[in-house]
Amino acid sequence: MTTLTARVVPVPARVLGGGGGRHIVERNFLLYRRSWIVFLSGFFEPLFYLLSIGIGVAQLVGDFTLSDGTTIGYAAFVAPAMLASSAMNGAIFDSTYNIFFRMKYAKLYDSMLATPLRPWDIATGEVTWALLRGACYSAMFIAVMLGMGLITSWWALLALPASVLIALAFAGAGMALTTFMRSWQDFEFVQLAVMPMFLFSATFYPVETYPEAIRWLVEITPLYQGVVIERALTTGTVGWFLLVHAFYLAAMGTIGMYIASQRLGKLLLK
After folding, report:
1. Rg for the chain (alpha carbons), in Å?
2. What is the pLDDT of residue 19?
């Protein structure tokens, strides 16, 4: 007698109407609707930095002169960097710690892949949610900047879309890196990467203050790209050079999403 082994292949999400990632966004929204304090926690760290350093230290530092000769206050110099950091925080922590728990402990993605959802749907859904979280942080931070009079240009209308781009870069990269994590101890490397970027990406002083030997290292970090974009938009010092920084962030996010989807397929569809 010949034994036939049948394998049940889930119907691709596109056959059922596509957009499988939106179901993951909806799921996360319903979850955080009851935990909104946790959701907002990432917004307060850059806000506290702005209030303590951008305002308190500003009384000692005085004004800053930008590369084009524009003079702004220290708080107006620091605030765009805090805005970029806010978008980074919202995206990176949602796409690392939370995704690791869902993947390794809750086994949530194993259940999802038993449905028509595919690894790419999971990657796009989780990254989209991280974008929304980063965008919420950024929108609130922009409102604070506006109330404090730290926005001096109409170009700042593009600051929120720029924050979404920053969130895309860190969400995609964060999710890709999470698929390589083996235990919670590995997340020490996340802090080891995020904290130096936060402190040294021309956040609190111009990149020109660094020695030439390490300045190039600062200029290739992801957060620096976001800081340059946000600072240019909020101060009105825009130029074609911003497209280079934007392309860097878009490529980083897209490549990260692709790696994450491929890794999820290998890890969960064995």
Report:
1. 21
2. 65
